[in-house]
Specification:
It is globular, with a radius of gyration of 14 Å. By secondary structure, it is mostly beta strands. A hairpin with a 3-residue loop joins β9 and β10. It has an 8-stranded mixed barrel. A two-stranded antiparallel ribbon has the order 5-6. The relative contact order is 0.22. The protein has 1 helix and 10 strands. It has a single domain, classed as Sortase (Sortase, Chain: A), CATH 2.40.260.10.
């Protein structure tokens, strides 16, 4: 598919239907997150690959915040074979099939495995996970690996 920014992500298995906003990098080169208080908003790395285009597209969302569950609260419940649909600004939809759901300690996050291109259209969904420490936050990230299986 040609490049076009995502506007909505839908994950029927965990009842996600969320607006997507563009995100950049902070001063340390880390991907920013959707704004505080917008826990039902997902974010796409706008300088990366658009969902459906060849390469690895990244969409992140909060697991929770002070008011309750976030957009990706149930992300870790996904299983291989389930689908994720991303509607794009060009009104086309990229449908991805989940290959794996994994958890990585934040201290050993495998950036190359997550972000590097694979030669085909892939999607990574990322949220916080693992043990929660009230001083330092979540100790891990949950990552969904998926590949493009259809377009509409």
């Amino acid at each position: 598919m040609p490049s076009s920014p995502p506007v909505r992500v839908r994950i029927p298995a965990i009842k996600v239907d969320a607006q997507v906003t563009g995100l950049g990098l902070d001063s340390q080169g880390q991907l920013t997150t959707p704004p505080p208080g917008r826990h039902h908003l997902a974010g796409w790395y706008r300088d990366g690959t658009a969902p459906g285009a060849t390469g690895t597209s990244v969409i992140i969302g909060h697991v929770d915040d002070r008011v309750g569950p976030g957009v990706f609260y149930l992300l870790g419940k996904l299983h291989p074979g389930q689908t994720v649909s991303v509607t794009r600004q060009d009104h086309r939809t990229a449908v991805f099939t989940v290959d794996a759901v994994r958890s990585f300690p934040k201290t050993a996050f495998p950036s190359h495995e997550i972000y590097d291109p694979t030669g085909r259209a892939e999607l990574r969904l990322i949220t916080c996970g693992g043990h929660y420490d009230h001083r330092t936050g979540y100790q891990a990230n949950t990552v969904v690996f998926a590949h493009l299986t259809s377009t509409a």
